[in-house]
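Figure 3 (text version): structure tokens given as input.
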């Protein structure tokens, strides 16, 4: 694709109120998705952007991905060689938000396909959120950092609701992620400063934003792990601003493969320590004494905060890597209480916020999946806190998203003739998005989690069933496939997850509700195998294999029965062949029919224990030659293995990247289906950030991938 940009003042339709414009010269055939980058000055409003075909001046639907100092425009080419983009600053020029296509096909994040959608406020995998009145309109806005891939960034969410009923507009990119973002007054001037990992701080952010980074003048000699939160405070009451530094220390934990045969963890726990840096200088020119470690130890992620609910010194509030928060008495930090609620997800990042005007402290909590929860303290200042139920904050016009580590499956889930989206995620939930659009242009409605007995499906590791230890107690890593497994005419779910125990949920005909999980069983000729690092034994004929891998269901041998293709307990890609025996459907032992060009059995596992499994596969006829090829994950784009064999011996020849898709992190999941009704397989990729990225086949074929 070739594009040339020219800046000019153009004679557009009189209705266009924008003051800035760019001419785009483009050589892309009609109907093929285009992706163009244009430079943008600060203050740009994505809502204002309009794209016109030249010379007709016809308005072209466009999706805008703004990441200062550029914006990416995603649109379907009309075949014109020339377009004009116009735009303006926030609240100027064109202010109406137009609906963008849900799926353009040039690597764009999937949206709902209409405006006015309300959903959970969210960023990517992590959310480090702070609240302040950024725009001086009297209510709390949010700044949320997301230090993940690929949605890395620090984002502004403007409160378009009220303080009592907050509702936030969609994210505006500010700059790359400020990990462990927190607020405070570093230099004692009464203005709001920000701190971030690495000992960085930013003065008077309401005036300067994040344009003036500085570093604390100190040297640390203690271990700094995953967490690195800095809180400025006069900790010792001498009138000088000191520092608290909360860091994680996982050295005792070791992270991987340390259960004995009874499921007991043999290594230590996660640690989270807080260090006090006393300021012996002045606020304007601080000098920090040797740090003192405070007598507290949180589980892996302290995120220290000062919690003020009565007169006197504030208490110390600490988070955890799991789902709980503790409050430590300032008079004796060894005395603590766990707050009377637990979060739904892990990797929590609490921040104290004065949501009420009487100075009492409430909590803003970032969780895995990029969501942000508000927990209000309903007791007036001076009384012991009384906590409202945690409430997810909401935003307008979010992206389509399923937690983090989204695992998509395209399927006509409700039987209306259009493809819907079913997805698993790292929390263990399975979610479905109904396609309320057409076969050629999707639009989505979030129908929530699939359920059993009215409760969301969620299989998690608990204290001892993740090979990576008890810190992963609330993770599930659901990897679903949809098929009519029992041939009763209803769609079922087949799921592998954090346990490596492959199960199926029988469909009931009610698209929201499934029957309870049943083990997938194999007709083993001997004792059922398992990965050697799994401490428990398979139950009966249970299929217990490597964790977090895709269980792909296809009719491989074309006998009308659904077979299973997935990694076995050793990481080899295998066919589990289906048959009928005494009137029953049974599953045969794994057959290593998938080989490389040199005849070696194909092993896709990247290691043992925690490094094992994880691989995502899709079996489709990518090249249209009548047999099933293999698509797998990689950090830089899906890999295509062309099938040059037959049904008995599939010789899988690596053809390289299908398309470059730099969506690094946690095995981005490719899923191929015809989303626009043109008879060609397109590609949808679920990423670490929980979003879905769409690549139209016409876009893929128009680009040469080396």
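Below: residues designed for each position.
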């Amino acid at each position: 694709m070739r594009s040339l940009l020219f800046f000019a003042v153009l004679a557009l339709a009189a209705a266009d109120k924008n003051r800035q414009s760019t001419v785009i010269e483009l050589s892309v055939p009609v109907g093929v998705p285009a992706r163009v980058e244009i430079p943008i000055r600060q203050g740009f409003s994505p809502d204002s952007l309009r794209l016109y075909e030249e010379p007709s001046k016809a308005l072209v639907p466009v999706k805008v991905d703004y990441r200062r100092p550029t914006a990416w425009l995603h649109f379907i080419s009309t075949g014109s060689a020339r377009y004009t983009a116009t735009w303006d600053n926030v609240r100027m020029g064109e202010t109406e938000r137009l609906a963008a296509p849900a799926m353009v096909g040039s690597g764009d994040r999937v949206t709902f396909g209409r405006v006015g959608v309300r959903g959970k406020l969210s960023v990517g995998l992590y959310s480090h959120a702070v609240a302040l009145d950024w725009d001086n309109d009297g209510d709390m806005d949010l700044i949320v950092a997301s230090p993940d891939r690929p949605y890395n960034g620090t984002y502004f969410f403007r409160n378009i609701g009220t303080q009592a009923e907050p509702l936030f507009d969609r994210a505006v990119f500010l700059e790359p992620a400020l990990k462990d973002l927190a607020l405070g007054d570093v230099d004692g001037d009464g203005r709001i400063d920000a701190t971030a990992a690495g000992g960085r701080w930013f003065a008077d952010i309401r005036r300067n934003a994040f344009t003036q980074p500085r570093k604390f003048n100190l040297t640390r000699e203690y271990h700094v792990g995953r967490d690195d939160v800095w809180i400025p405070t006069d900790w010792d009451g001498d009138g000088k601003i000191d520092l608290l530094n909360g860091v994680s220390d996982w050295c005792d934990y070791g992270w991987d493969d340390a259960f004995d045969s009874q499921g007991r963890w043999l290594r230590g726990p996660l640690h989270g320590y807080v260090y006090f840096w006393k300021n012996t200088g002045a606020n304007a020119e601080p000098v920090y004494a040797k740090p003192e470690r405070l007598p507290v130890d949180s589980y892996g992620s302290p995120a220290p905060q000062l919690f003020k609910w009565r007169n006197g010194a504030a208490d110390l509030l600490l988070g955890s890597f799991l789902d709980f928060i503790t409050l430590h008495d300032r008079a004796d930090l060894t005395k603590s209480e766990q707050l009377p609620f637990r979060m739904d997800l892990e990797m929590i990042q609490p921040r104290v916020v004065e949501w009420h005007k009487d100075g009492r402290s409430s909590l803003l909590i970032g969780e895995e999946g990029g969501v942000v929860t508000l927990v209000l303290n309903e007791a007036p200042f001076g009384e012991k806190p009384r906590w409202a139920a945690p409430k997810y904050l909401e935003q307008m016009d979010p992206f389509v998203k399923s937690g983090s580590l989204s695992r998509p499956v395209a399927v006509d889930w409700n039987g209306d003739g259009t493809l819907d989206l079913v997805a698993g995620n790292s929390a263990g939930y399975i979610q479905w998005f109904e396609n309320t659009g057409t076969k050629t242009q999707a639009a989505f409605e979030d129908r929530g989690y699939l359920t059993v007995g009215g409760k969301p499906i969620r299989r998690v590791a608990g204290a001892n069933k993740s090979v990576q230890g008890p810190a992963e107690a609330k993770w599930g890593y659901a990897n679903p496939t949809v098929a009519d497994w029992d041939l009763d005419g209803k769609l079922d779910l087949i799921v592998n997850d954090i346990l490596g125990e492959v199960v199926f949920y029988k469909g009931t005909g009610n698209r929201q509700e499934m029957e309870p999980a049943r083990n997938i069983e194999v007709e083993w000729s001997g004792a059922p195998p398992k990965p050697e690092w799994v401490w428990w034994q398979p139950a009966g004929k249970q299929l217990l294999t490597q964790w977090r891998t895709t269980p792909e269901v296809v009719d491989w041998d074309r006998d009308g029965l659904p077979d299973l293709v997935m990694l076995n307990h050793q990481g080899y890609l295998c066919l589990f062949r289906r048959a009928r025996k005494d009137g029953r459907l049974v599953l045969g032992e794994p057959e290593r029919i998938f080989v490389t060009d040199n005849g070696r059995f194909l092993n896709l596992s990247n290691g043992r224990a925690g490094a094992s499994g994880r691989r995502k596969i899709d079996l489709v006829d990518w090249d249209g030659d009548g047999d099933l090829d293999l698509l797998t994950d990689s950090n830089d784009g899906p890999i295509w293995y062309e099938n040059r064999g037959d049904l008995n011996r599939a010789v899988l020849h690596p053809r390289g990247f299908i398309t470059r898709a730099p969506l690094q992190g946690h095995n981005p999941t490719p899923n191929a289906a015809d989303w626009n009704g043109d008879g060609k397989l397109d590609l949808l990729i679920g990423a670490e950030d929980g979003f879905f990225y769409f690549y139209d086949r016409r876009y893929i074929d128009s680009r040469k991938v080396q």
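The two ends are 15 Å apart (CA to CA).
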